[in-house]
Predict the structure.
Amino acid sequence: MAGYLQTTDSFSSRNIALAGHSTNLVGIPTGLLASPDFNQHPLPLRIHGTREANGGLFCKLGGCGSLAEAGEVFQDYMSLIFGFEEEQRLGIDALGRRRFRGSYLRLLQDWGFDSNHAQGAVLKGWVESRFGLFPTYHKEPLTGFATPAWMGYVEEKMATRFHNNCIYLQLDLLYEFCQWAIARFKLPARSHLKLFRGVYNVGEFCELGVRKGGERLVRLNNIVSFTSDRTQAGQFGTYILETDVPIVKLLFFNDLLPRHPLRGEAEYLVIGGNYNVKLSM
């Protein structure tokens, strides 16, 4: 399996096909989910069992008259179910020791600081678990399962400091709430959203080929930050990637929640895969 995520041009057709696991929790084959065809013609995605297991939340959300009201309901529910307040709090375990209580808001905060910290590995691990997509980068290119880079990623994504308090279930709920909010309030008639990402060099993503009209086919990391503001994207790199992101691949957007640490950057967290992008200075 070594070499399935090279960041050079030395891709074989077999290596390109190995975008992720053979199974996932959204009911769409991972190879299709990773493909540009899916991005052009997306299908509905649901993380199995999440809405059903939290029916009371979505029933209450149904009575909300605005996104702001729905965001308050969601965050109150998360605080009640997972035992933290606005961001997080320290709990006491059975032996009387203070224990860090993992929070989706803490992950968002630390992702904003540095997506290659352990908290970023947890987010990438969640995407890998739920959508089946392998990450392509964590501190350095991930070029195979038997490499030190991959082992380091696995160690960090499973670290008990952040991988506790049912953190994957928290992220499941965040994704499902995001999709519910988009359909109800944000973009009810849209299937795609044009987004931008600033990069300093083309080596930050895996280029798979050139399309007609100058578009490039690239493999993005399994979770990636974008912005809806092209000017904002230009502050984060010499080059700007522009692409149409399917709505079903959004985990988070800036005004989804009334209280969160990523305000001011028009940021979107996007599930990755192979995208057709335009690259400009």
Remarks:
- The first strand starts at residue 90 and ends at 92.
- The chain is about 35% helix and 20% strand.
